[in-house]
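Subject: complex prediction, re-run

Hi both,

The earlier run crashed halfway through, so I resubmitted it with identical inputs.
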Amino acid sequence: MSRWGPPVLALALTVVVWEVVVVGFRVPEYLLPTPSGIAAATVSEWRYLAVHSAVTLYEILWGFVLAIVVGIPLAMLIVYSPLFERSVYPLLVASQSVPKIAIAPLLIFWAGLGIFPKVLVAFAVSFFPVVIDTVVGLRAVEPEMLYLARSMGAGERKIFVKIRFPNALPNIFAGIKVAATLAVVGAIVGEFIQADRGLGYALQQATSVLNTSLGFAAIIVLAVIGILLFVAVEALERWLTPWSVARRSELASGTL
Amino acid sequence: MRALESVSFDVRAGEFVSIVGPSGCGKSTLVMLIGGLLPPSGGRVVIDGATVDHPQTNLGIVFQNPVLLAWRRAIDNVLLQFEMRDLAPGPYRERARALLAGVGLEGFEHCYPHELSGGMRQRVSICRALIHDPPLLLMDEPFGALDALTRDQLVLDLQRLWSRGRKTVVFITHSITEAVLLSDRVLVMTPRPGTIDTIIDVDLPRPRRLAIREDPRFAKYTRAIHERFLAHGVLRDLEEDEDP
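This time it finished cleanly. Structure:
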């Protein structure tokens, strides 16, 4: 009750007020539907929503996985190659001042039709935090630990496997969690620009014919996908880095 | 920046040598040089007749910061010593357990570092430095971050460990009392760039209890070290006629 109670209660209250206001002031449905109307649309159109969700989920997951699979090795290159660090890393950081959403139309234009260009946008939007946080994590080893490792006769390979990488895991997860939310944004933006499938497409279709209830239904499904992805990453984090999660909760509750 | 001026001294096998000096006199640099973790800008370090020109592995190091791996339990932090050497840690578990128990960590073997106090973490780090039974132990202000009581306890524990194994110990500290209590010889260093000012032989019977600190012979040694620091302006005492 103490953890879930307040937010659930606040949400319930918002829904009730929303319903009462819309009904009371007779707001037309195409402007703002009632929560019950949205729920009804979600149920009656579930098959349509499911088909489009599957497409978007597919794009999100591929973009997200690519961000990790490309981001982590790139971070390792930056950490281990001085040449790479001095040449590519500053450009990578500078490129972040360009809003990547602005490049999305170009990406779609170059990559053509279908699902791949949306995967590309989801990847482009979400891989940067993975790179940055991994770089920070890999570098965060205390110098004394490295001296100790050398006094134990360990080479850089061993140090990476036993010390650097596990030490970086909490940072890597921080980056991956940001990437998980950004991948959702990327996929939807990609679909807004050009698509004939997916939740972004469904949302645009619904609003263009003033079917606002269905539009809201699509947004809710999208939110659920985003939350599930985030929760899955957190569960993985809890499983792989219990020490860091425990420490964080101690810090948060002030027992440390 | 030059940390050390020319420094020359010998440490005999099985000897406990302390190096005391003000902050920034290059004491830590000395440890790094002995361990082969930093190349000397001149001169050389010789261990057992061999010139040190790469990281030495036949020794244990304890830093002020215990640097334990947060994701490993106490015993697995100790066993890291073997894993880093490509040795399977299995056969050494019992030894690690006994070593931890010997410094009062029985029952804490399976705790994570964040579940241990600062003093306990430093004990784990000492066990990690000793588990492979090295002939040489380098300690760089190992008790510097601990409270006075924990410090006293660890000094006693260290003395007990040393008297059992008789390893060669090079012990860096700020604390004159700690140095005199533990050492066979104390090297007093001057301020930066550091060089060795005096070497004091501590001829006190062992084992030394904490109460030896009140012994006039003990006081003679600490006073001798204080005087060297006064002479170098590291310490400035009140003048005779000064109103405190």
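The CA atoms of residues 119 and 146 of chain B lie 6 Å apart.

- K.
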